[in-house]
Amino acid sequence: MEVIIRPNEAAAAALTARLIAESIQDKHDLVLGLATGRTMESVYARLAEMHKNDGLNFSACRTFNLDEYVGLPADDPNSYRSYMNDRLFNLINIDPRNTYLPDGMAEDLAQECQLYEERIEACGGIDLQLLGVGESGHIGFNEPLSALLSRTRQKALNKVTIAQNSPLFDPPSKMPRRALTMGVGTILDARRIIMLVTGANKAQILAKSVEGPITSMISATALQLHPATIIICDEAAAAKLEHKEYYNWVFANEPEWELYR
Fold this sequence. Notes:
34% helix, 3-stranded antiparallel sheet, 7-stranded parallel sheet, globular, 8 helices
């Protein structure tokens, strides 16, 4: 795991988008794992801008989103399908048939989760997985006590997640209480992982995720087990990290980061 601290949210998002863009340029048929939420909006805006202004080519990419609410149709404005269409897919040259999200309206949700795993495998696995982290420490919707080897499945959402996300619904009581999510094990199967974390409200959980013990109570701690994970955060989110000086030294001195300083 590497931790990169940027001065502010904009710089953190810009570096995240640049690393994703370079991965697409290196492998035109990249399989991308994608996340939703307010943290990701500026990343997707930058990727759409790179497509428009610099010709970043998504035509051969395949994407798999982490999760989707149970009971929301794809055209619901609060569905993650709508989020992705509005903020990225409709703004780039990706084939919509190559953009996958779990179907929260499936008649057989267990079968849908199994099919999702099979689709990922059929595409050769995820090359680069983008993550955020929830205030309860979840990645995807892997709430506390999620097994660290779990696969795509249905999960009940906890009170912290509902409080964090329900203001996006009108009224907030309309927020579903369950979701389909990639499992922790599914996420760890990705060849590379980038987790973007910004804001002072994420400082405590980021410190626990990066520097605390590995525990199913905080699914993000499982990233400590992954051989190619980069955590990109802003100064506000990094405020409670104990080893900030070391992380900054690595970024300032390691040759692999020379072009990004």
